[in-house]
C-alpha cells in the first residue's frame, strides 16, 4: 500500500514538473505561446483537484522519503539510490521560495505571476535565482526520471521503448532551458523601455517590500519544518540504534556456512550489503521486483508473516511459502537464508517464468549429435581453423534445430544436445526430432561442400535420439544458466549417439521415438542394444544416412497442412 502511495505521489509530482518543462519549452515559439501554455498549466494545477493532488503529493512523497530514510538501516547503497534520495530531499528546500513568490503572492496579494513577472524576477533582477530555479527543475526532473526508470524497468515492454523515453528525458529539460532563455532575452530588451516596465509593474501588481519580507519569512518556516523533520528522523534513528543494540544480535547464515551478525530490525538485504555479500536487488529494496528473494532455512518458524504488499509480489512470481523478499524481511531471531537469484539478476527475473522453465517433469525427445574423429581433426589444424570449422558446424546444426522447433540445450566440445516437445506434445517432439536429424544430415553435406578447401576429409556425425521422462528447467548459476534436462532418458540418448560408431551409421533412433511419432522406419533394421544402468535393452533403428528418411518430412508436411486447415476453420 505504502509502495503504491509513494509511487502515485511521485507520479503526480513528475507530471507537474514535466508539464512545467513543456510550458517553458513553448518559449522557443514566442512569449505569447509561453503565457498561453501557462494559462493551461495554471488551469490544471491551480484548480482544487490539481491543488490537492500537487500539495498532497508533495507532502506525502516527502514524508515517505523520510520514512524510508528512517527504515533504512544501512547506507551501503548503489549510487543511483543515493542520488535519488538526495535529490528528493533537496526539492522542498529548493522549491519553497519559488512557490511562495509566485503562487503564494498570487493568492495573498493578487500578484499576476505570469511569465513576464517570473522572467523579470529570475532573469532581469535576480539572475542568481534563475540559476537556482533551473537547478530545482532539473533536480526534480532527474529525481522523477530515476524513479520512473526503476519502476518501469520491471515492465516487459519497457526495454523496447526505453531509448525513446531516454531521449525525451534529455530533450525536454534542454528545450525548456532554451525556451526560458529565449523569453528571458526578449523581456530583458523590453525591460529597457521604462514605459513598458512601468506598465508591466502595474499589470503584475508588483510585490512591495512587505511582500518580499513575507516570502522570506515563510521560506524560513518551510525550511525549518522540513529541516526539523529531517533532524527528527536522524534523532529517531539514533534512539532506535541504542535500543536495538541492547536487544543483542541476530545471526544470519548464508550458503557455504558464511555467518553475519546483525542488529534486529535490519533487513536481510541490508545485512547482505553490510557484510559485502552480493545480493540481487533490481528495484533497490523497494519491494517491487522480487529479485532479492530468499529461501528460508533453519529458524524460519520465527519470522513474521509477510505484509500484504510483499505477499502480492511473492504471488506474482509463484513463490512458495518458504520464500521471502530479502528487502522486506527483518529477522529477530537467528535465521538461515539462501538467495535464489544471482547478484546480476535482471528485470526479467521479476516475473514468473513459464512452467517448463521453472522445473517440471516432461516427456521429451532428446537428440545428441557429435562429430566423428574430431580430436584427430583438431590435432592437425591451427586453433583458429578448428574454431572456425566448429562454429560453422554449430551454426548449421543449430539452425536446423531451431527451424524444426527444438530447443538447443548445450554444446559440449564438438557435441550438441537438443530437446524436442518441451512446449508441445511428446508425439510432436518425436516427429520434430526425426525431421531435425534428417535435415542435419543434409546440412552436413552442404557444409562439407562449402568447407572442402579447409577439410582433409568430410566431417561425419553420429546422432542418437530417444524419448523419455526427464526433469526440464532453467539450471545453472549466474550467466551460465540455460534450459536443460536431466534424467535417465538423457543418458540413453547420449549412449545411442555413441553407439553410432559401433554400428557404423549416422543415426540411431529408439523404436519408442518411431512409434510415438507415428513414423514407420521398417525399411531400417530393428535391433536391440544394451544400455549401461538399464535392465531392459533398447530397441533401435540404425539409419546409415539420416537424410534417407523421407517419411518424416511427409508426416510433418501433412501435419502442418492439417494444422493450418483446422486453424483456418
Ligand atoms: S530488492 Fe526489489 S523486491 Fe527486494
Number of domains: 3
Mean pLDDT: 85
Structural class: alpha+beta
Spatial extent as radius of gyration:
34 Å
CATH topology of the largest domain: 3 helical TM bundles of succinate and fumarate reductases
Give a count of the beta strands, DSSP E runs of length 2 or more: 13
| Shape descriptor | elongated
**Share in helix:** 55-70%
Give the number of helices.
Answer: 18
- At CATH level 2, the architecture of the largest domain is Up-down Bundle
Low-confidence stretches: 557-569
Beta-strand portion reads 5-15%
Major sheet: 8 strands, mixed
Topology of helices and strands:
Blueprint: H1 2-25, H2 31-45, H3 48-71, H4 79-109, H5 115-125, H6 127-152, H7 158-190, H8 194-204, H9 209-246, E1 250-253, E2 259-262, H10 268-274, E3 293-296, H11 308-316, E4 323-325, E5 335-339, H12 355-358, E6 360-371, H13 374-379, H14 383-403, E7 407-412, E8 415-420, H15 426-450, E9 461-477, E10 480-486, H16 488-502, E11 507-510, H17 511-517, E12 526-529, E13 538-543, H18 550-568
Parallel strand pairs: 1-5, 9-11
Antiparallel strand pairs: 1-2, 3-4, 3-5, 6-8, 6-9, 7-8, 9-10, 11-13, 12-13
Helix pairs in contact: 1-2, 1-3, 1-6, 1-7, 3-4, 3-9, 4-6, 4-9, 5-6, 5-7, 6-7, 14-15, 15-17, 15-18
The structure holds FE2/S2 (inorganic) cluster.
FE2/S2 (inorganic) cluster is lined by residues 281-283, 285-292, 325, 327.
Amino acid at each position: 500500500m505504502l509502495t503504491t502511495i509513494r509511487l502515485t505521489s511521485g507520479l503526480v509530482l513528475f507530471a507537474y514538473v514535466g508539464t512545467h518543462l513543456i510550458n517553458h519549452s513553448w518559449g522557443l515559439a514566442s512569449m505569447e505561446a509561453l503565457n498561453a501554455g501557462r494559462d493551461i498549466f495554471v488551469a490544471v494545477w491551480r484548480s482544487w483537484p490539481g491543488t490537492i493532488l500537487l500539495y498532497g503529493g508533495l507532502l506525502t512523497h516527502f514524508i515517505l522519503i523520510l520514512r524510508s530514510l528512517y527504515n533504512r538501516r544501512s547506507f551501503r547503497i548503489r549510487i543511483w539510490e543515493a542520488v535519488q534520495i538526495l535529490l528528493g530531499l533537496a526539492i522542498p528546500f529548493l522549491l519553497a521560495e519559488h512557490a511562495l513568490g509566485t503562487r503564494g503572492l498570487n493568492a495573498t496579494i493578487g500578484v499576476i505571476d505570469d511569465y513576464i513577472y517570473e522572467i523579470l524576477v529570475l532573469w532581469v533582477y535576480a539572475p542568481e535565482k534563475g540559476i537556482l530555479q533551473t537547478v530545482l527543475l532539473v533536480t526534480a526532473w532527474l529525481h522523477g526520471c530515476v524513479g520512473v526508470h526503476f519502476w518501469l524497468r520491471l515492465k516487459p515492454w519497457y526495454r523496447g521503448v526505453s531509448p525513446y523515453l531516454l531521449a525525451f528525458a534529455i530533450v525536454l529539460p534542454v528545450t525548456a532551458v532554451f525556451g526560458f532563455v529565449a523569453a528571458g532575452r526578449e523581456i530583458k530588451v523590453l525591460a529597457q523601455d521604462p514605459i513598458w516596465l512601468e506598465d508591466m509593474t502595474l499589470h503584475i501588481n508588483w510585490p512591495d517590500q512587505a511582500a518580499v519580507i513575507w516570502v522570506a519569512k515563510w521560506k524560513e518556516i518551510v525550511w525549518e519544518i522540513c529541516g526539523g523533520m529531517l533532524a527528527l528522523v536522524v534523532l529517531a534513528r539514533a534512539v532506535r540504534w541504542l535500543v536495538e543494540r541492547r536487544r543483542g544480535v541476530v545471526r544470519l547464515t548464508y550458503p557455504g556456512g558464511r555467518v553475519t551478525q546483525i542488529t534486529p530490525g535490519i533487513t536481510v538485504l541490508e545485512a547482505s550489503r553490510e557484510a559485502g555479500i552480493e545480493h540481487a536487488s533490481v528495484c533497490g529494496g523497494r519491494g517491487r521486483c522480487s529479485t532479492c528473494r530468499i529461501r528460508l532455512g533453519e529458524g524460519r518458524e520465527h519470522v513474521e508473516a509477510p505484509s500484504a504488499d510483499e505477499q502480492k509480489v511473492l504471488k506474482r512470481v509463484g513463490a512458495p511459502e518458504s520464500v521471502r523478499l530479502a528487502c522486506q524481511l527483518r529477522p529477530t531471531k537467528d535465521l538461515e537464508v539462501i538467495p535464489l537469484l544471482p547478484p546480476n539478476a535482471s528485470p526479467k527475473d521479476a516475473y514468473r517464468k513459464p512452467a517448463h522453465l521453472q522445473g517440471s517433469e516432461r516427456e521429451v525427445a532428446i537428440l545428441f549429435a557429435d562429430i566423428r574423429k574430431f580430436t584427430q581433426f583438431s590435432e592437425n589444424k591451427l586453433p583458429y581453423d578448428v574454431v572456425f570449422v566448429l562454429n560453422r558446424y554449430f551454426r548449421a546444426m543449430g539452425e536446423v534445430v531451431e527451424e524444426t522447433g527444438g530447443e538447443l540445450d548445450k554444446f559440449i566440445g564438438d557435441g550438441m544436445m537438443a530437446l524436442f516437445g518441451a512446449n508441445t506434445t511428446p508425439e510432436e517432439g518425436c516427429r520434430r526430432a526425426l525431421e531435425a536429424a534428417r535435415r542435419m544430415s543434409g546440412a552436413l553435406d552442404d557444409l562439407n561442400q562449402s568447407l572442402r578447401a579447409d577439410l582433409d576429409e568430410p566431417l561425419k556425425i553420429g546422432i542418437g535420439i530417444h524419448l523419455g521422462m526427464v526433469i526440464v528447467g532453467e539450471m545453472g548459476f549466474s550467466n551460465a544458466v540455460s534450459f536443460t534436462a536431466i534424467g535417465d532418458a538423457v543418458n540413453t540418448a547420449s549412449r545411442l549417439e555413441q553407439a553410432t560408431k559401433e554400428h557404423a551409421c549416422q543415426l540411431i533412433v529408439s523404436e519408442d521415438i518411431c512409434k510415438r511419432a507415428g513414423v514407420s522406419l521398417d525399411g531400417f533394421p530393428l535391433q536391440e542394444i544394451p544400455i549401461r544402468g538399464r535392465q531392459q535393452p533398447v530397441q533401435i533403428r540404425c539409419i546409415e544416412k539420416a537424410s534417407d528418411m523421407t517419411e518424416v518430412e511427409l508426416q510433418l508436411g501433412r501435419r502442418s497442412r492439417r494444422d493450418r486447415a483446422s486453424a483456418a476453420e
